């Protein structure tokens, strides 16, 4: 058995210490939340305070930027803590108000994207899984053509720069279980094409979450941490593809594509929240 280098052992001990400290802080936070809940009851104040939750998340966003943390990491952690606080007070965690992630390297043209559709009738829009039987009737050739066109526009620059060479001869899958759809992509003649055969690595997630990822309204770290996205198969291949997407300069994606993704993702998220609220 290989001996663990002293530096590795020392760093692991440091990580263990920080993990212990985070759990101690979490326990202390829960005690404070319980005390706060009792104080609000005595004062006749409402248990739920959305404005306060927004302020906590916004403060975390600002601190995360100053500390150089990945976008969305602090927001995801704080959202889980707020959900736990709600649970301690006997409140539902559904519809937790998580503000939109700021766009990396924003451009003035992106201002056209601001504003989410929040029409009340969105709750009558069927969730994606109810569209699955209809989508299964769409010819596979049409599905493939639409997917190749969308991916080609989104990844046009890295394709032309040869940054997707690691996919040559490899197959990566996209699975959307609530729509009953799955595709396998491979690099052929400098283009990403839908190919036959099993995927070596797959990204699996709901239609809404994948759209939020593609539009940069949610980041991969948060979605994977919350288990809203799953990576299966060849982990190294999947992480390489994911890291490339994380580095993709958002401002270089065609503006029309950014606007379409942004509005589509916001509409899908609003419809999901409205449908959950109306259940």
Automatic annotation (TrEMBL):
Record carries keyword RNA-binding: no
InterPro entries membership: Chorismate_II_sf, CM_dom_sf, CM_II_prokaryot, SCP2_sterol-bd_dom, SCP2_sterol-bd_dom_sf, UbiT
Keyword Metal-binding attributed: no
GO terms, biological process: chorismate metabolic process; ubiquinone biosynthetic process
TM region positions: none
Associated pathway: Cofactor biosynthesis; ubiquinone biosynthesis
GO molecular function, one term: chorismate mutase activity
Chain ranges of the Chorismate mutase domain: 2-93
Superkingdom, taxonomy of origin: Bacteria
SMART domains in alphabetical order: CM_2
Keywords from the UniProt entry: Ubiquinone biosynthesis
Function: Required for O(2)-independent ubiquinone (coenzyme Q) biosynthesis. Likely functions as an accessory factor.
Family in the record: Belongs to the UbiT family.
Protein name: Ubiquinone biosynthesis accessory factor UbiT
Native organism taxonomy: Bacteria, Pseudomonadati, Pseudomonadota, Gammaproteobacteria, Lysobacterales
């Amino acid at each position: 058995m290989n001996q663990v280098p002293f530096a590795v052992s020392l760093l692991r001990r440091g990580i263990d210490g920080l993990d212990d400290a985070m759990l101690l802080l979490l326990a202390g936070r829960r005690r404070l939340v319980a005390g706060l809940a009792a104080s609000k009851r005595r004062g006749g104040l409402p248990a739920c305070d959305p404005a306060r939750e927004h302020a906590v998340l916004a403060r975390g966003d600002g601190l995360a930027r100053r500390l150089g943390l990945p976008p969305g990491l602090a927001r995801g952690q704080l959202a889980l803590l707020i959900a736990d606080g709600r649970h301690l007070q006997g409140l539902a965690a559904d519809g937790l108000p998580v503000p939109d992630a700021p766009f990396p390297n924003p451009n003035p043209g992106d201002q056209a994207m601001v504003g989410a559709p929040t029409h009340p009738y969105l709750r009558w829009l069927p969730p994606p899984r109810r569209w699955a039987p209809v989508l299964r009737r769409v010819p596979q050739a049409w599905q493939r053509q639409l997917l190749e066109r969308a991916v080609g526009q989104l990844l046009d620059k890295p394709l032309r720069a040869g940054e997707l060479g690691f996919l040559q001869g490899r197959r990566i899958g996209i699975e959307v279980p609530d729509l009953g759809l799955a595709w396998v992509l491979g690099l052929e003649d400098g283009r990403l094409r839908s190919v036959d055969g099993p995927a070596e690595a797959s990204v699996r997630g709901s239609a809404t979450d994948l759209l939020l990822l593609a539009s940069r309204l949610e980041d991969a770290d948060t979605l994977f941490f919350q288990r809203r996205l799953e990576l299966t198969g060849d982990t190294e291949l999947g992480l390489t593809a994911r890291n490339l997407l994380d580095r993709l300069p958002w401002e270089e994606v065609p503006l029309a594509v950014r606007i379409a993704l942004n509005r589509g993702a916001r509409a899908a998220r609003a419809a999901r929240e409205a449908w959950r609220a109306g259940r």
